[in-house]
């Protein structure tokens, strides 16, 4: 039933359950697109400028302060006044900032897709068990003593990628069998509980040093991605974002509910597979390279809807991607504690930075959805 494509003819359009959602959908998309061309493009331009400024600031700030003009000189291919500055920018801060932008965009878009699919404001990348699958893969390497040296770090990334891929495969397999998105959501949660339980058992039987290594991985970090690994991460994220951009129209249809979306010609099975594949690819790749980064996938979509004041995903997808990159850069800069050698846990900074914003949005909108 979910795979059947319905066409709107003269007989169907007289039915109130079909004509009404069609009217609403036109308001959500075609009519609104005419009025958002200037205001929303201006907002996206401002977000892009803000992202560029924060990106340059992230290269200048840190345990060693570097003048902004020296940062620009290095980025434009010149030589910094001090060789150490050039080394810090090119080998440490630049790959870390690029990783933060890619990870922030990926997790934010993943959360946006899952919230639209499950019509659940608390849905995020961890809701399908993808993060838990990646964590289990990493735990199998770290807690068995296989994460020593450069090859050990690469094996952790590989194992986390395999764990995320297996979880994604199971979810896609169930998406073909389960017609209800709510049932699929419950399956994802149960899968997450199972993998978390397995990780807990591994932690119980592991040594203290191995446990500490794994806990440090769970804190999340953008600093572990090297120049050799960065092209792989960027390629996967760009591919996932391209799929997300192509699913904007189905996401808009899902705003009406599954039954109404089906009546307008949407194949729910196909849409679920596309959305789950894209969201899993984005969240799984980031978790594999950076650890389980929390909060971004849940909070940023709400922030994007509030700032853009629209439900149209043709606007929300680029806006949320920019906001995710921006917030990830800010959190990473704060975690580095400028002027100090201390590095704070990224997930702690992310929650302290994002939770007050989300609470403020809820208070501002009262009973309305954020």
From TrEMBL:
Gene3D superfamilies hit by this protein: ABC transporter involved in vitamin B12 uptake, BtuC
Biological processes per GO annotation: siderophore-iron import into cell
Recorded topology in the membrane: Multi-pass membrane protein
Pfam families linked to this entry: FecCD
Coarse class of the protein's main subcellular location: membrane
Keywords noted in UniProt: Cell membrane, Membrane, Transmembrane, Transmembrane helix, Transport
GO-annotated molecular function: transmembrane transporter activity
Subcellular location(s) of the protein: Cell membrane
GO CC terms: plasma membrane
Keyword Transcription regulation: no
TM region positions: 41-66, 98-118, 130-150, 156-175, 182-205, 225-248, 283-303, 315-337, 343-363
Family: Belongs to the binding-protein-dependent transport system permease family. FecCD subfamily.
Protein name, as recorded: Iron ABC transporter permease
Source organism: Adonisia turfae CCMR0082
């Amino acid at each position: 039933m979910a795979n059947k494509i319905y066409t709107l003819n003269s007989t169907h359009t007289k039915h109130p359950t079909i004509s009404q959602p069609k009217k609403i959908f036109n308001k959500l998309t075609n009519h609104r697109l005419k009025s958002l061309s200037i205001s929303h493009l201006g907002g996206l331009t401002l977000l892009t400028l803000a992202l560029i400024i924060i990106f340059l600031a992230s290269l200048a700030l840190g345990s060693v302060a570097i003048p902004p003009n020296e940062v620009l000189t290095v980025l434009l291919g010149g030589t910094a006044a001090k060789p150490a500055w050039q080394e810090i920018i090119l080998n440490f801060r630049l790959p870390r900032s690029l990783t933060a932008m890619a990870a922030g965009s990926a997790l934010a878009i993943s959360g946006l897709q899952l919230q639209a699919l499950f019509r659940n404001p608390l849905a995020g990348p961890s809701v399908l068990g993808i993060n838990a699958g990646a964590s289990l893969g990493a735990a199998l390497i770290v807690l068995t003593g296989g994460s020593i040296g450069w090859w050990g770090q690469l094996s952790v990334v590989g194992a986390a990628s395999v764990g995320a891929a297996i979880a994604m495969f199971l979810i896609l397999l169930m998406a073909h069998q389960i017609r209800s998105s709510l049932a699929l959501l419950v399956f994802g949660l149960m899968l997450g509980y199972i993998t978390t339980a397995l990780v807990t058992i591994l932690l119980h039987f592991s040594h203290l040093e191995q446990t500490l290594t794994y806990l440090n991985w769970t804190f999340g970090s953008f600093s572990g991605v090297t120049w050799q690994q960065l092209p792989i991460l960027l390629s996967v994220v760009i591919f996932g974002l391209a799929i997300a951009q192509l699913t904007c129209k189905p996401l808009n249809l899902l705003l009406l509910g599954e039954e109404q979306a089906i009546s307008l010609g949407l194949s729910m099975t196909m849409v679920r597979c596309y959305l789950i594949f894209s969201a899993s690819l984005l969240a799984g790749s980031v978790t594999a390279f950076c650890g389980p980064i929390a909060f971004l996938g849940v909070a940023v979509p709400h922030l994007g809807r509030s700032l853009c004041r629209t439900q149209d995903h043709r606007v929300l997808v680029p806006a949320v991607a920019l906001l995710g990159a921006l917030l990830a850069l800010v959190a990473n800069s704060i975690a580095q504690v400028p002027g100090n050698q201390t590095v704070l846990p990224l997930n702690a900074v992310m929650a302290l930075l994002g939770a007050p914003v989300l609470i403020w949005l809820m208070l501002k909108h009262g009973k309305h959805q954020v």
